[in-house]
Design goal:
The chain has 81 residues and is an alpha+beta fold. The protein is built from two helices and four strands; from the N terminus they run βαββαβ. It has a single domain, classed as 2-Layer Sandwich (Alpha-Beta Plaits), CATH 3.30.70. A hairpin with a 4-residue loop joins β2 and β3.
Length: 81
């Protein structure tokens, strides 16, 4: 199956959603190339970027599940390869 590389940008405003977010990322761990998280204490948020190489439907499923978490926002940018 053909895969694409994408970056999922995540902003966490509700720290209570972090355990569920980490659970989701662990479930998709085989497809995740890398992860970078930056706590921004001044605004009391966390900014996370996920680089993933997976079929389009897998990327969409993960991004959608993340976006349904309370106080969590996600946007995805896709490569053309």
């Amino acid at each position: 199956m053909e895969t694409r590389v994408a970056v999922i940008g995540i902003i966490v405003e509700n720290k209570e959603s972090v355990p569920e977010l980490n659970k989701l990322l662990s479930e998709y761990g085989d497809n995740i190339i890398g992860r970078m998280g930056i706590p921004y204490h001044k605004k009391q948020i966390n900014v996370i970027s996920i680089v993933i190489d997976a079929p389009q439907d897998i990327i969409n499923a993960l991004s959608g599940k993340i976006g349904r978490l309370g106080g969590v926002h996600a946007k995805t940018a896709y490569s053309n390869v």
